[in-house]
Structure to design on (164 residues):
């Protein structure tokens, strides 16, 4: 149900909380589990939340389709629905076409909602821990891991399509 453009921001914040998009402990596969039903509403939510999960304001629609159809093998159907969704969200001003073919951009007004990543803890350079000659356990950048997973899923699906 459409209640107007002024309700998009509160709805996006609510969806981010409901789906735990900003949780560093959730992997991309956990955030976007296998859905047997690839309905327009489900794909719409996943499409928009993918921008926040990857903290990217520009994504390739073909890679999105490959990622969202990674378990159900219905890439063509998923892509067709994604094109319909992006057309509708473009008309509403939420998404727009990018400079490259297949590129979609989340309107900066809505992309600014993403939660900032936690800063790395400050390290005392004179502490025993920092003076030891061994590598420090670097904090894992969960956004970088999610982006790598996204690219890996898209690549695997793309390779399997070439074999067919």
């Amino acid at each position: 149900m459409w209640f107007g453009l002024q309700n998009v921001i509160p709805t996006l914040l609510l969806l981010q909380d409901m789906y735990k998009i900003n949780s560093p402990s959730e992997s991309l596969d956990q955030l976007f589990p296998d859905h047997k039903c690839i309905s327009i509403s489900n794909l719409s939510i996943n499409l928009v939340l993918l921008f926040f999960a990857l903290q990217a304001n520009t994504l390739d629609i073909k890679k999105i389709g490959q990622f969202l159809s990674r378990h159900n093998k219905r890439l063509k159907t998923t892509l067709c629905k994604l094109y319909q969704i992006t057309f509708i969200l473009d008309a509403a001003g939420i998404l727009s076409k990018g400079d490259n073919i297949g590129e979609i951009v989340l309107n900066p007004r809505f992309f600014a909602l993403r939660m900032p990543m936690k800063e790395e803890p400050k390290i005392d350079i004179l502490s025993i821990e920092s003076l030891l000659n061994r590598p420090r356990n670097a904090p894992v950048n969960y956004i970088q891991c999610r982006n790598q997973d996204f690219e890996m899923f898209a690549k695997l699906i793309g390779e399997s399509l070439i074999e067919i």
The chain has one domain: 5-163. Residues 5-163 form one domain. The mean pLDDT is 83. The radius of gyration is 18 Å.
